[in-house]
Amino acid sequence: MKLQELGEFELTKLIREIIDDSRHPEQAIWQDLSIGPGDDAAVWQGNNHLQIATTDTMVQDVHFDLDTVTWDELGWKALAVSLSDIAAMGGIPQYALVSLSLPGELESESISKFIKSMTNLASKFETAIVGGNLTSSLRIIITTTLIGYTPDRVLMRSTARDGDCIAITGYAGTSAAGLENILGKIALDSSCQQVLRRAHLQPTPRIKEGRILVGQGVKTAIDISDGLIADLNHICEASGVNALIELEQIPIHPLVKHNFHNCLELALWGGEDYELLFLASEDTINKAKLAMSCPVTVIGKTTKEAQLKRISLRDRNGSFVPYEREGWDHFGKKFSRAKNIRS
Amino acid sequence: MKLQELGEFELTKLIREIIDDSRHPEQAIWQDLSIGPGDDAAVWQGNNHLQIATTDTMVQDVHFDLDTVTWDELGWKALAVSLSDIAAMGGIPQYALVSLSLPGELESESISKFIKSMTNLASKFETAIVGGNLTSSLRIIITTTLIGYTPDRVLMRSTARDGDCIAITGYAGTSAAGLENILGKIALDSSCQQVLRRAHLQPTPRIKEGRILVGQGVKTAIDISDGLIADLNHICEASGVNALIELEQIPIHPLVKHNFHNCLELALWGGEDYELLFLASEDTINKAKLAMSCPVTVIGKTTKEAQLKRISLRDRNGSFVPYEREGWDHFGKKFSRAKNIRS
């Protein structure tokens, strides 16, 4: 079957099955492995702490377009997405490797800007870029691998329980709104434009917030990279729970609410917000909220009631809202939308 | 300046300078860093051992052609090149992350073969594939990141001294000969073809040999990925030494010697042999040789005498052989050749 028919999630499953079949439980590396493929990052037992590693690739004309992004923004984002994966594990980032495949006709000045911006972000999070790889290619391909650790424990996808509250940091849909503006779908004034562009191209990874979640006893988290519903679905699938989302609770940035009639769709399916979606008891979430300087909003809960779907959406009138699919598929390339939702 | 004018090595230097400028010596991550960009892998102090990490990218139609390589071979090679970097550091591989960018029209069966082959090689070296990333792209891009460790110390590029002997494991040029055959430049009988194809597409990383080198007191090593002369040049530059190579000592596989009139050129500039090139005193090299089951050949020495060039080549008559450049450049794409060398 072709990958575009199979889809990203089935392909991921196929690969995981092959890797699982290859396990040698008698080997030390497999004994030390805490989390293999299928979470935001891999985790294994180091000598005195858990080691965490994650990798992400950005491909020109798939993930970015040089006509609409600067080299500064590209360098920042390429590292930010991996930092966000470490944040989603509750980890502390340490060392990054950057693999660049570049066309020969690029200007070296562009690459200087790219690397400088990346080191600026790295410094903010006390992370060192320590190696990488250079090759030529027709289009730009950037793969960032980030290695970190946690002295205590990690946040996982598989630990949600029935009755957990579902919360997110910051706002959902701001990045997708930024992308719509960058693509010229909507004109905005320049200060608004700057906020949304930054949300899309220079997100701030929630490293500090991830550590607070661990400290406050939260066990379950993911970063919103595929989209709120898609990422919540990853947690529901991994934990075997159902979720009920109250649409009017979803935190949407005032600039997005004001300018985008489709703001709720952007918030639910837009992706790339790199906020943390986390689940815990109400008490625990309240404690985490008090400890954080960013907004934290409860948007729903896990429940045995909502048997109809893995994830149910309820509007302000208490009516369930039908929708089609759960998320972005890299191969299918269908950007899913709910039916008839307007905020 | 365009990258194709600047060249790979200058671009690497530029990136290293920016990263060096970004260092924060007061941060723990920089204090723990033993080796940053510029060796076969990055190395930092873990709790009880040195941690090692390396990354490599293979791009379709740059590094491989689906018309001439099978998915089994591709999976093997994509991991083997990273294992070889860990071997060149004298390290023990542990965990791999694999980032795949794939066109939607690929068959999932191909990816299954690819991953199975990769897990087969991983198992041989007690390595676990623990994560990665999937994205769509027009051409296939494979980035493998490998994390390992050493309980004692690492092999480096910068530790060669005047008077060291220069040795290599196995044969040089076999991989390049395999590539010439695959590209249809020369017809060979099928058993010969199989040996050379395997050398090019399914090299065996010298992990065991790297550990022996550490155990026997060798300090300096690199793997031959760019080519014997290019990689020796990396060591000479990093260590500030000159080298004198005796051309008739270079070990060339009998099948290559017999079938390729340009075998010496392939051995010197061909690359991708993934053998270890290492430097130490004669005594130390003899001890290492005794401890290894593969061929080990001394091919020259570092010297203060050879002042004319970083690397001098001497033929069987004691005459110095002129040559043009030192290696493969990913952006310049010039596959350098010596003048007038025939073995």
Spell out the blueprint of helices and strands.
Two copies of one chain form a homodimer.
Chain A: H1 3-6, H2 8-21, H3 28-32, E1 33-35, E2 42-45, E3 50-59, H4 71-88, E4 92-102, H5 108-124, E5 128-136, E6 141-150, E7 165-169, H6 174-182, H7 190-201, H8 207-215, E8 220-223, H9 228-239, E9 243-246, H10 254-259, H11 263-269, E10 276-280, H12 282-291, E11 296-302, E12 311-314, E13 320-321
Parallel strand pairs in A: 4-5, 9-12
Antiparallel strand pairs in A: 1-2, 2-3, 3-6, 4-6, 7-10, 7-11, 8-10, 9-11, 12-13
Helix pairs in contact in A: 4-5, 4-8, 6-7
Structure report:
Two copies of one chain form a homodimer. Chain A has three domains: 37 residues, no CATH class; 99 residues, PurM-like, N-terminal domain (60s Ribosomal Protein L30, Chain: A); 157 residues, Alpha-Beta Complex (Phosphoribosyl-aminoimidazole Synthetase, Chain A, domain 2), CATH 3.90.650. Chain A is globular, with a radius of gyration of 20 Å. In chain A, the strands form two sheets. A seven-stranded mixed β-sheet of chain A has the order 8-10-7-11-9-12-13, with helices on both faces. A six-stranded mixed β-sheet of chain A has the order 1-2-3-6-4-5. Helices cover 36% and strands 23% of the residues of chain A. Chain A is an alpha+beta fold.
